[in-house]
Structures are given as C-alpha cells and as structure tokens.
Amino acid sequence: MSPEDQLNITKSVIIRNNSIYVDGNIIYEYFKNDNFLNDSYESLDNNYPKFYKMDVLGKLGMLATHLLLKDSDIENHLPSDVGIVLSNSNSSLDADIRYFDSVKSFPSPALFVYTLPNIVTGEISIRYKLKGENAFFISQQFDADWLHFYISHLFQNNKINACIGGWIESINSDHDVCLFLTERKESKNGINFTAENLNNINSLGDDVSNILP
Amino acid sequence: MDKQELMQRLKDEIIKQLKLEGTKPESIGDHDPLFVEGLGLDSIDALELIVLLQQEYKIKLNNAEQGQEVFRSVSTMADFILEHQAKQV
Amino acid sequence: MSQKVYIAGVGIISAIGNNVGENLASLKDTKAGMQNMERLQSVHKDKLPVAEVSLSNEDLCSELKLPNHISRSALLSTVAAKEAISNSGINIHKWRTGFISATSVGGMDKTEDFFTEFMADHPNGDLKNVVNHECGAVTEITADHLGIRDFVTTVSTACSSSANSIFLAARLIRQGFLDVVVAGGTDSLTKFTLNGFNTLMILDSQYCQPFDENRRGLNLGEGAGYLVLVSEKVAEGMNQKPEIALSGWCNANDAHHQTASSPDGTGNFLAMKGALKKAGLKPADIDYINLHGTGTNNNDIAEGTAIKNLFEGNYPPVSSTKSFTGHTLGASGAIEAVYSVLAIREGLIFPNLRFETQMKEIPFAPVTELQHKTLKNVMSNSFGFGGNCSSLIFSKVIG
C-alpha cells in the first residue's frame, strides 16, 4: 500500500458496563435499567421512529452507528463504497429467545425478522443508505486480527473507501459493543488501523464495571 | 361497540402492536392511509396487524393480499371487523 | 495476486440425494424432494410440505460414527464436506487447509429437543443437547471431524451465508493465507424456522412454483453443500487439473427492508453487476443463471427485475433449483454453487419445475426442461434477509 493509502481508525464507539464511550471518552452513563437503550437514543438521536421496533442488536447498532458517523463525511462516499463487517459470539440468541417467548401466546412476525445476526447490518444499511459489502462473523471473542485482515482486504481490492467494523453483542440485557470507523484519511487521533490498536480500543471499559453504584 | 368506539380502540391497539412510539391516537385520522404515506407502515407491520385481528378479534386472514384492502385505514379495518362480527351473530 | 481459484471437489446432501451422484440423477430425472413432513414434528405437519433429507439422525450418526446428541446441521455438514474432500482426491493434511461453513439455524434442532423435555420437567433436559446450539459450534464439530485446524470460521448472513463463505475462501487463497479451503454451508429443518417463515406468510402449502405468475411462496428444505477450492499451485499438482474456477463474486446490501427485497432488486443488481466486473465478463457471456428463485412474490419480482435491467435483452437461460430442494436457507448458496459446477461439468441446464404461467413484469421465462448445452460461465444468485445479496460466477477454464 502506498502512503496515501494508509488506513486509519477515525472514530470508535464502545457501549459496555453502563457507559457509552466515543473515542475513549465517556459521553453517556446510565444506571442499569431496561429503558437504557430508548433513553440514551432519545437523548442522542431521536429522528428515526423505526428504532423502537428493533431488537436489542438493532438498537445497539443504531446507537453506535449514529455516534460513529456523526460529524463524519460518510455521505461523500458512494453508497456501494462503504462496507460493514461485524461479529459476535451469540448470533441473534437474544432475539431468538424473545421470539420463542412470543410463540407461547402468538408468534410475532416482527420479532421473527430479527432472529438472524445480520439484520443489524441491514438496519444500518437502510438508515444510512449504505450498499457496500456486508459480512457477519461468529467468533468466540473480539478477533482483532481477523477484523483487521478482512477489512484491510476490502480496502486493498478497492472495494470500499470506508468501513464500519467491530463487535456487537447482547444477551440478557448485557450489552457489549465495540464499533470503529476505518477510512483512508488522517485520523485526528492519529490511530493507525492495526490489530494492536483495535485491541487497545476494545480493552476500554473492561475494568470500570464498578464506577457506578 | 359502535364504529366510532371501535376506531378509537383500534388506534390504541395499532400504536401498541406496532410500537409506534411518539404517535398519538388522535393524530391518526379515521381515513388516513396506514401504509407507505400516512403512518409509513411496511410489510412486517401488515403481518402484525393480521396477528392483532386474530388475537383481539378472533378473525383469521389467510393471506397477506387480503390485508391490503382491510388495512387501508382505521375506518376500513373497523368496517371489516364489524362486518365479521355481524356474520357471527 | 490475480491467480485463479479452482474448484477441485464438490459434496452435497439434500432432499434429492445423499451425495453428488444422487443429486445429479434427481436433477436429470426431474425428481423433486418436497413432500409431507416425516421427520420434523410440527402442528403444520399435513399443511406445509417440506424438502427433508431422507436419512435419519441415527443413520447419519452411525455412518459418521458420531454420538447421537450431535445437531443434524452438523451431521449434514460433515457428510457433505467429507464427500467434497474425497471427491477432490486431495490430501488436505499436506496443505494449509481451512474450513469455512455457513449456517443460519446452527444447533437449534437439538435445542428444540431439549426444550420439550426441559419444559415438561426441569431436571429432565439433557444439557448435551444445548451445548452445540450456537452457529460456531456446528462448524467446530465438522472441522474437528475432518481434522482441519489451520483456519476455521463461521459466516452467518441469512440465506446468502454459504455463497459468502465460498468467496471468502477464494479471497484467503488469493491472499496466500491458505492453499485449500473447504467452503459451503449447512442448515437442518427446525420448528423455529418453519413457524417463523409461516408467521411471515411466505410458505406455500403446495409445492412451490418459482418465477411463476401465480407463485404462492416457498417450501423449506434442508441440506448441506461444500466446494473444495484450491490455489493454482495445488491445482497444478493434481492428477487432473480442475477445469472449473470461481471467477467472479460480489456482495452488496439492498438497504431497503429487514426482510423484503426492494421492488427493483437494487441489491441483487449490484451483486450481479459486481460479480461480472470481478470476472471481467459482459452480461452476454453468462450461459446460465441458477436463480435465488425462492418462489415468494417479493423475491422473484425483485430478482427478475434486476436481471431484466442488467441483461437488457441478452437473457441467458435461468432456473431455480429450489423447485427441487426447497429453500435450504444458509445451505442454499452452497448447494446451488455445487449445482452450478455440475451444470458446467456435465453441460446441463436444470429445469425450473412446475412453471406454468409467465410473470407479467419480466420479459423472460425459466427453462422448463433439461437442456444439454456447453456452458462456459454460470452465475449463481443468493439473496438473504438483512438485504444481504451475493452473486457468484463459475467459469470453465481454457488451457
């Protein structure tokens, strides 16, 4: 890759342990409650009524992507030049359980449509009009080496000019999200797109579970 | 139940069933189109309305196409339910 | 960088056969696989036909010498992947070999068994039935059985999953990370998917009629398919160099709706166009399209419209082999990739069964009888929920 092709992580969003971080800084803290997703969404972005119809993965994806793309110039790229590469370990288990519960009274089509992990990539694509390559991998944990390899490959083959990547997991109201935006431009934080830096970004919030009462 | 009452009840039920957070029952006109324009509902919402009819009114629609006529507006939904209930008596 | 990726072997199990030979024979004899449910236990038993693999779990376990708590998805996967490897004749342990498998239901079938016992009486559930629930566990079981350790991963992007696992294999080979990749996907029939698709009102209570004006929906199926993809170097060393390569692929998002395709099939169009570009081909170079062709109103009109717009008069023969196998979800991309390879190898275009009436929105009709024809380039489409659209192109390699 030539120097001007240097890939950088231009933004990152972490949602875990009762906090939302953007580029490493806490922007929202919450007491653990069932309304966290709706509450935080309403205080950060409330312009998309479809949000309320989504499963937890979809809501987490909306929240994190909103913060990731806010103030970015993502709309300068062609829709087909923006990729989405996500991963988690429990697939859509959270939505599967909710759908299964609905079957007891009446199976809900609106819950069934979320029983696949990649529906969140679809929701992000719809909301931000992105038509590039999507992938969803199931891995035991955040696999920085794999995400780095896969996303680098998409850039090197001129398939994309920007990529939303990372980890998005929800189970039993526990949320764990680490999304990052990779672009071919200077990062104001000066973070190069490397597996090591992805691991550094993802390590944030691991040790702060006791900040809130 | 007369049609007016039924339409009031349907508006509350639609908002709850379709998770139309922020939509007030009074903002839905009796004859407003429910799909595309109007409330901007989609195909999954149509299926949820079929579930609503079955759960609350014990009316079974067998295909999604029939829903297109029935779910045109709150008024057409109410007419359909009343017609069905009249047949049952 | 631009080296070719060859198809050295194929393996398959579906409702129309337990191996490649049986599948090919059924395709030639126009023998469809759907019928009343036999293995799957459901309240819809007599109402919704499905395309089940004829072998029972017990048959599969004893054939593979695997314990009987293993998920059916993993059993189907192991049978088909083993066949693909033996069909290739390659000693996979000599090379850097990967296993990439796709699934959408994972070990759900066994979880359902567990739930029935568990809900009736809590101490009764057998936990062995749930440990393989997650999609990745299914892949691991097969990979362990095959002894593949260099690289193992699972793709889960709904009904395009296994098309995506196939081109991921090609990428890893072209990047020089692996020499051989066994790639494809598996899904078994479960109550979860049957009831779910039923709530979406897209299941046909008769045998499905893809691309027909009066189509009513899809029939669910089950199965697994795998390809053995190899590098130029591996291909050179084989007794007979493979004749078929994966020449093009593309994935795009339709960005329209969680489950429905956009009316014009924007994502379908982008995927097919991207695959042609990758292969360096023009629309007129495609000799046959194995359609996604689920038989739902929405898919067939979106896919048909996208083909109409992209091929503009040069319509190649098209057919949906889901009229034989039902919709095998996460396995369908790989099963149809195997059929596409067989189409080139055997010089055959498979028929689209039960077609009666031309769709009024599109200017072409599917092939209704088996055709013998030399095929050079075959396109295989796979479009999934979440707007995930993929297209693959297989080509006969000259020289």
Kindly list the characteristics that best describe this protein.
heterotrimer, B: 89 residues, mainly alpha, Non-ribosomal Peptide Synthetase Peptidyl Carrier Protein, Chain A, C: 399 residues, alpha/beta, Peroxisomal Thiolase, Chain A, domain 1, five-stranded mixed sheet
Give me the secondary-structure topology.
The complex is a heterotrimer of chains A (about 210), B (about 90) and C (about 400).
Chain A: E1 8-16, E2 19-22, E3 25-29, H1 36-44, H2 56-69, E4 82-88, H3 93-103, H4 109-112, H5 119-128, E5 134-138, H6 144-156, E6 162-171, E7 174-183, H7 195-203
Parallel strand pairs in A: 4-5, 4-6
Antiparallel strand pairs in A: 1-2, 1-7, 2-3, 6-7
Chain B: H1 3-17, H2 43-57, H3 64-70, H4 74-88
Chain C: E1 6-14, H1 20-28, H2 57-64, H3 72-88, E2 97-102, H4 108-120, H5 135-146, E3 151-155, H6 161-174, E4 180-187, H7 191-199, E5 223-230, H8 232-236, E6 244-253, H9 266-279, E7 288-290, H10 297-311, E8 318-319, H11 322-325, H12 332-346, E9 348-349, E10 371-372, E11 377-384, E12 388-396
Parallel strand pairs in C: 2-3, 2-4, 7-8, 7-11
Antiparallel strand pairs in C: 1-5, 4-5, 6-12, 9-10, 11-12
Helix pairs in contact in C: 2-3, 3-5, 6-12, 9-10
